[in-house]
Structures are given as structure tokens and as C-alpha cells.
Amino acid sequence: xTTTDIAWDISDRPPxxxxxxxxxxxxxxxxxxxGIFLLLGVLLFVIGGSIIISEADSNFIDLEARLSPPxxxxxxxxxxxxxxxxxxxxxxxxxxxxxxxxxxxxxxxFGVLIGAISGYYGGIIDSLLMRFTEAMFNIPSLFLxxxxxxxxxxxxxxFTLLGRSFSGSVIVIICVIGLTSWMYLARIVRANVLSLxxxxxxxxxxxxxxxxxxxxxxxxxxxxxxxxxxxxxLQVAGSIISEAYVSFLGVGVQPPTATWGNxxxxxxxxxxxxxxxxxxxxxxxxxxxxxxxxxxxxxRDAMDPRALVETD
Amino acid sequence: xxxxxxxxxxxxxxxxxxxTVHAVNGISYDLDxxxxxxxxxxxxxxxxxSVLSLLQLIPEPPGKIAGGEVIYRNEDLLxxxxxxxxNIRGTDISMVFQDPMTSxxxxxxxxxxxxxxxVVHLDITREEARTRSVExxxxxxxxxxxxxxxxxxxxxxxxxxxxxxxAMALSCIPSILIADEPTTALDVTIQAQIIELTKNLRxxxxxxxxxxxxxxxxxxxxxxxxxxxxAGFIVEEADxxxxxSNPLHPYxxxxxxxIPRVDKHIDDRLATISGFPPNNLNLPPGCSFAPxxxxxxxxxxxxxxxxxxxxxxxxxxCWVDVTTGRER
Amino acid sequence: xxxxQRLVRVRELKKYFPITQGxxxxxxxxxxxxxxxxxxxxxxxxxxxxxxxxxxxxxxIGRTxxxxxxxxxxxxxxxxxxxxxxxxxxxxxxRKRMQMIFQDPYASLNSRWTxxxxxxEPLRVHKLFSGAEQTDRVExxxxxxxxxxxxxxxxxxxFSGGQRQRIGIARALASEPEFIICDEPISALxxxxxxxxxxxxxxxxxxxxxxxxxxAHDLSMVRHICNRVxxxxxxxxxxxxxxxxxxTNPLHPYxxxxxxAVPIPDPVVTRARQRVILEGDPPSPINPPSxxxxxxxxxxAKDYCSEDVPEWRxxxxxxxxACHEVKF
Lengths: 312, 328, 328
Description:
The complex is a heterotrimer.
Chain A: H1 18-27, H2 30-52, H3 55-59, H4 85-121, H5 123-138, H6 141-152, E1 159-161, E2 164-166, H7 168-179, H8 183-196, H9 200-208, H10 212-220, H11 225-248, H12 260-266, H13 276-302
Chain B: E1 5-16, E2 19-31, E3 36-40, H1 47-54, E4 63-72, E5 75-76, H2 82-88, E6 93-96, H3 100-103, H4 110-122, H5 126-139, H6 145-148, H7 158-170, E7 176-180, H8 188-205, E8 208-213, H9 216-222, E9 225-230, E10 233-239, H10 240-245, H11 250-258, H12 298-302, E11 308-311, E12 314-316, E13 320-321, E14 326-327
Parallel strand pairs in B: 3-8, 3-9, 6-7, 7-8
Antiparallel strand pairs in B: 1-2, 1-4, 4-5, 9-10, 10-12, 11-12, 13-14
Helix pairs in contact in B: 4-5, 5-7, 7-8
Chain C: E1 6-21, E2 27-43, E3 47-51, H1 58-65, E4 73-78, E5 81-82, H2 88-94, E6 98-101, H3 115-125, H4 132-144, H5 161-173, E7 179-183, H6 191-208, E8 211-216, H7 219-225, E9 228-233, E10 236-242, H8 243-248, H9 253-261, H10 267-272, E11 313-316, E12 319-321
Parallel strand pairs in C: 3-8, 3-9, 6-7, 7-8
Antiparallel strand pairs in C: 1-2, 1-4, 4-5, 9-10, 10-12, 11-12
């Protein structure tokens, strides 16, 4: 057939994929690496600890030992009904982190869907969805959080999962946090979708006859992964803090299920007299959130699209 | 007559994640006063990088001027202090870029940008600068120049913005104007206007011009001499009439045979250059054009050819004589 | 010529882009008249060139013909089938037979998909072949465009611009179309690669009996590849003729100016030329001039040119012009 000419020479080292470049850049970000190690430490504590100490121990009430300071028997001290704070920090951590992760899942589902539909279809759908998003933005989130939490309290009963029982309020809090933190992501996704849908590969897909759904999910969304990943990572930290707020105000996860937040609530009347009650959960919140923020920063820099521009 | 600008063995490299990019690999040429030099080549050949480095405009890092000197009025521009080279930029040697939108500050009026340079370098008052600015805009063909001084860059069309860029470049009466692909992004009728304008201005001001482009047709109109670059090397240098009537480097030869003309219909298939563009990360040991050359002999794969004279004002970097197909 | 030979018929096509204002409900306050009453035919097997400068509407026409933009008014027939009123599924069916090749080799391929997935998309959408047959077909297509079939699982960024353009061509061929709109397919490529891609397009046309609408701004390349050429200005077609006729005997003053503005890669010829240099910038399509759109820049405009829209007439066999001053 044709007499040309380019025989593609498979070079021995193909160019780095955007993913590999991102990983390389991430690795050079010292804070991000520190964050990863810190996170691993916390996770080790929270997961490993639960293998050594049972959940029953964290709920074991020992009135004689109440309000005792850290000692060999209770390395983190005990709370106002004599429960071991170390054990509660471990199990509380599990709940707090799970809430953080699942809330972000809820938030991603809403944020991405709303952002994608709004950006892709435009017109009145976009106007309505964005006005709704802005309205949600403008309501102080803490306020919304508290009201929703109070409204939905007690609506879901305690349930058992994998042999452990969880208070229904865990589900409530996950939904509440998720439903009040999707807006930022929706805006970002919408902005990305708006610019992506003008790209020629989308026009090419339409020219081929691909359906709108296929274009949104197979073409456009995979190209908006970067901001979604970064935003999601940082939101985990935000969710952990939101949970702490809400539980501290008493409308969050209900006892006996421990979370770092409701441990802080129980420490409220013992702030000066028994500081170990708030110190340990507080410190873990701090460390976890810091670690996640470092990792998020690193991811943001690593995935900065401007740095991945090729030169010809 | 002494040359105005002498470039000797200029080498520029870039450090990237994937290794060192050898953008410019030892180029040398002279520019005489009032002469128009065209630098021609495709993307990646190093033409833009080479002129940016003349004015120390390459960011270091990741760039690095790895060798050579650029003599202007008995001084080496590459070794000048920051203050001194800044005094040269915009006054003695000016540049016009491809995309006027990013070279003009979008939040300052045109008048302010035009005045700024003049007040600083020509040591005149704001009033005098303003008068000169109006004259300059008039000279480059902007209608209603006095009113337009208070406009912002986005209020001008692409062609008009390029004219403003030229006005700015000329405001301090440079002896050399460097134009880096100034018309590539413009429509063909606007390009014709800008080329006409440049020709008139350079004749009037007796200015030397270095015009960089990938478009051989554009350069045929403007240049006195042409340098053809490939993979960071100069492969052919000749008087404009010589180059088009008698190209002697295989690359220049193939390039000229592969472009269509608007005044003649070419019935046969366009000649093509086989292979793929060079990889400046990994240049071959010999001539970088050898993998794509129809005339390559053994020596071409081992030794980088030197730029040597083959006629009056005509130099090529090639081991082969294309008229016979044999080594020279 | 019988109607069957007219593969595509465009009649009085208009495409306006509304300019809107409003918070929730958008109000139309003006329109960009990108295509304003255009009529022409494309014959089976030919390459019709559509040229013009930026803003003339040529890209919009291409997309409107394929119904990627819905026309504001007018008709488009493909093989005598009405495209404008075709239902969703019927249109989808027809999309197998008409395809597009895009300008930007970087943006026209989804950087997250392997080229096998990219080229196979038309096969999946139209449910042609399945499983192993699809893979075979993809390899066959890669072969047609001279890309090594082993690269099937690589990503676009691993290929050069010219290769990506070939991948785009392979994708366009996947559903065995009869008609391909080439929207500036070579503008973003280096000169030495342009010839390769153009040769490929010509070979494919011969092999598969394709019909092309070749949208471009490079008049030299258009002269090489097209059979007939249409010149657009600000949303209307100014002139349409067989290639040699248009280039040697342009009747519309815009065509004359356009042709004279195109540089020629021959310093002797180009410096001896008489140029028609147009003044000023093209007006905006949001507020086009009244009457003949070209009258504001036309060297021979008369009073009535600003009042009456010139008629689109066949002044010689196969030579159409819209100009008051061109007589039979």
C-alpha cells in the first residue's frame, strides 16, 4: 500500500506515563513522605492495637479505677467511668477514621455526579444545580451539621457488622458529613468538565456516535481524576474534624461506641483536672489530620497538570 | 565592515526528569549591520532557544548555557551582569515573540507599557515619551493612535497586538530586532501586512533583523541570508537566492521539495523525509540527520560533520556531495 | 450530473451562536453569525477544499454538516438523506458513513485510553465485529496508516504529533465511512510531517474511494490536494471553482487578496510579485457589515456593496462567485 515511511521505533525506554511522573514528584516532596509514615503509624496503632486489646476491654467499666492518671495498667489513664483510654483511643480511632473515609465516599458520589451533570449538560440544569450548590455553600456547615444530626438522631437503630455492634448514629454522621461537604468538589468537577467537554477528543466521540453517558463516564471523568483525588484526600481530614466537632457537641456518635470526638466530649468536665482524657484523643486527631494534609499537599503538587505538559 | 553580532560555538542544554536535552549544539554565525538573517527549522531544532540565550532569557535552571560566546560591541553578552544585559534588552537588541497576548501585560494599558521602556532607557520625560508613543503606533499602522494609548491589550486584535509589540520593540531604536515566529499565529492576510511593515521599518531604520520561522516561504520574502537548523546544529547557511536555487544539505533539499506552492500545481506526490524527528535527549554519535538521510555514507554515522564553505557565502555541515552522492 | 453523484448537499445553511445573559434563565442578547447562508455540493470521490482565515466559519460548517452543531436553519443532505431532521438513532446509523479528522493531534485523542481502545471505539459504538475480530480490525487499521501493530496497547503521549494524527485517521476509517471531513488535519504538524500525512490521505482516498471536505488555511497545500476549492469570508462563501481555475483566475477581490498574500518559497518570484495588501482587521461575526460582508476592506467596493447582499451566481461553468462587481 502506501510507501511511507514511519516505521515506529519502539525505543528501549518508553516515555514515563503521567502516573509515573506523578509518583516521582510525590517522592521528592519530603513533607508528603513524612505524612505517609505518620499515617501508617496511626493506622498501625489503630488496627494493630485492636488485635492486642479487645473491644470489650474498651467498654469495660471499672468504677474503682475511674479518673486515674496514666499508669502501667492504664497507659493512657481512665475516663469518668473507669474505661481504659488507650483501648478507647484505639477503637475510637477506628470509628473516626472509618467515618472520615465513608463520609468522603458519600461526598465524592454527590460532588462528582452533580458537578459532571451540571458541567456537561449546561443550560437550565446547570443553573439550577449550581444555585443549589451555592445555597448549600452559604449555609454555615457546622450549623447544618448540627441540625441534621439532631433531626436524624435515633432514627437508625444499633446494628451489627462483622461481629461488632455499631450505634446507628455512625451511619447518621457519615451521611450528614458527606451531604454537607460535596459542594467544593462539585464546583471543581464542573469546572473541569466544562473545559474538557470542549476538547477535541470529546467532539470526536460525539462524531463517532457515542452516547452522552458513555462520554461522561468513559471519556470525561477519567480525565478529572487528579483534582478529585486531591480533594478527597484532604476531605478525609476535614471529615474527621467535623466528626470531632459534632460529637463534642453531643449530637454525634452516641455512647457506648467510642470516637475521638465523643471522647473529647466526655473530657469536657475534666479539662483541667484530668487532662489525659482529652490529650490522647486530641493528639491523635491532630496527628492524623496533619498527616493527611501533608499527603494531600504532596498529591496536589505531584498531580499538577501544568508540570506534565510535554515539549515537542 | 565589522559584524554587528558574532555568535561563536553557542551551546545550550536543559536538565529534565528524563535527562539532559541538548537544545543547541555549538552554532556560530555573524550578523552584519542592516542585514536580515532568517533562522529556519522545525520544532525542536533549537532556533528559539538559541536566540533567547543571546539575551540571557533562558531560565537557569533548568536551562544552562554550556558554552560559547556572543560578541556585541566588543562585549560577550553571555557573560554580562544582569544589570548590563537588561540595559541591552529593549534598547540595543529588541525581541518580538509569537504570542503577543502573553508578552504584553494584560493589566496595563498599551500606553503605559510603551512609555515605561522609553522613560527608563532614553532618559526622556513622560510627556516626550507619550508623544513618541503616538508616533510609533502611527508608524506601525494602528489607526487613531492617540486614543488607543489608553486601551488594554485584550482590546486589540491579534494582528494589531503584534503591531503594538513591534512598536514596543522599536521604541528605543534598536540596532537588532529579533523576531521569533511573529506571524505564525496570524492569518495569512494579516501576516502579509506584518511582513510588509517589517520590511518598511527595517529599511527606514537600517536595522538588522533576525527572523525565526519554520515557514520557508515567509523567509524567502524577507531574508538576505538564511541559516537552516536541525537538532541544535546549523546544517546550511547561505544567501537567500542561493539556498532556494541550490540547496546542498540533504535536509534543506528535502524540505524544499516537500512544500507545495500556491503558484504552481504539483501533480506528483509530495516528497517526504522518512523517519522521525530527532530526539535531543539522545542524539546519535554522528550526524543527527543520518537516520533520515537518503545520502548517508559510513562517515556520517560516526563523525558529526563540521560547517564548511562550499561556495561564496554558502556553508553546509555535511560529509556528502548531493550532486554526486559521494563523500566530499 | 445526476443527484446520486452529489454525496453531500448543503442548502442555505445557517449557524448562529446566541450570546446570552441571565442568572437562571438565559436571555438572548445577540448572536455570533458563524455561518450565514451557505449552499454548495460535494461530489462523490472528490476533495473539496474549504479555505478562509480565522473566524470565517469553515470549522463551524464542517461540524454543522455532521450535525455536531445543530443548524439554526437550512438543509444538509447526505446521499439524499436529510440529516437535519434525522432522528437520534437514524443519525447514529449515518454516523458510520461520515467521519471527521481533527486538527490537534494532542487533544483529539483521549490521553487516558490506549490507542487500541481509541481506534476501536467506532467498532464498539456501532457494534461492528466483536472480540477477536475487533482486535484484528484494529491491527488492520494501524497497518493502513503505517503504525506498527505492536504498539496497540500504548498511550497517545508515547507517539509523536504526526503519528497521533495517523491514529486519528485510523479511528476515522474504522467504520468504513464514505465521507470524511478533514478539519485542518496538518496545521499543527511540522513541515516535513505534513507531506507524509497528506500523501497518506491521498492514498487512502484512492484505495477506498473516499470523499473529502478539506478544511484548511494553507492555500499552498490546498492547491496540491484539492479538486475544487471554496473560499469563505465571515460566514459566507465568496467564491467556489475548480482548483486550477480558482488559482489562476480568481474573480472575487477577497480571493485575489488572499492568494496574493500567500508567501511563495522562491525569493525571485515572491519579491517580484504585485501584492494586494488588505487594510485593517476582519470584522467580527457578531456584527457583520451590511450588504456584502467584504465591503469594508474591499479595494473595489462601490456604494451599493454596503446595501445589497451579493447573489451567489455561477458566472462560468463550475465557477461560482458572490460579488456585485463580477459580471458574466
